Sequence to fold (292 residues):
Amino acid sequence: MSFAIVTDTSANLPTPWLRKNHIGVIPFHYTYAGKEQDCLDTEAFNGSAFYTSMRNGILVSTSQINPQAYIDCFTPLLEAGEDILFIGMSSGISGSFQSAQLAMSQLKESYPDRQFRMVDTLGASLGEGIWVIKAVEWRDAGVSLDEIARRLLTLRRNMCQIFMVDDLMFLKRTGRVSGAVALVGTMLQIKPLLKGNEKGQIVTCAKARGRRKAIELLAKRYDELVVDAGSQIVGIAHADCEKDADLLATLLMRNHPPKQILTVMYEPVTGSHVGPDTLALFFQGASDVRSK
Fold:
C-alpha cells in the first residue's frame, strides 16, 4: 500500500528537495506589513529583507493553523488512495499538531479504509526537517508506513536542538524570558543558549558572554553530545547570519565531522519568534540528550 509523506513549513526544507521527493506541505501563516502570508516556497523567500525589517522594528505576528488547512491538504491524497504519514512541528511550542490530530479524527470517518500515522517530532526547523529526510530515505528503501512511524517516534528523543538568540527582547515578546531578564541580558551582551527539552518545549541550557563565545559553546555542546557523527546529517538554521553559520559549520568539522551539514535560512514563521541573527544547531545524540 502506498503512502504520502506530509509535513509543514516549519520543517524548513528546501523547496526543490520537497518537490523532487513528492512531500506535501501544510503552510503556516504570518502577518507581515499588514498582510497575511505564507512561505511555501523557501527559494522565493527574501530572508535578508525580512530579518532586516524586523531589526528595524517591523512586527510580525503568527496564528495557530486550524484543522481545515490539514483537511484541505490530506483529502486529495486520500481520494487518490494514499495512506498518510504526517511529520509535524512540536506540540510543546505550538497547537498546530493538535489541529492535525483533529483533522485526522474527522477524516477517519469519511475514509475508514485509509491509514493515518501522526508523528509529533518534538522539534521545529531542521529538528523536524531531518526526520522528514530520514522518512523519505526509509520510504524509498521499501520500509513500511508503520515501521517508519515507529522509528520516528522512538528516535525523535535523540534529536538535540540547541540555538542562540541575538536579542532577548524577541523571546520576551513570546514569554520565554521576563522583561527584566531580557533588558539586563541585552545590556550585558549575554547570549543564552536554549534547547528543546523532553516535551519539545524551549528551555535555557547555558549562557555565554558575547556572540563568538556563544557560537563556540554551540560547537562544544556538539562535541560533547553527538553520537556517530559520520553517519548523520547535521542541520544549521540561521536568521540572516550566514557568516556565523559558516563559522559554526567549520567548528563542527574539527573533531566529529558529520556525513553532511545542511544549512538553511529560518523560514519566517519560526524565525519571527526567535528573531534576527538566531543561530540553531540540530544533530542526533543519545536517547537522553534532551535532558542534558
In short: The radius of gyration is 19 Å. The longest strand covers residues 202-209.
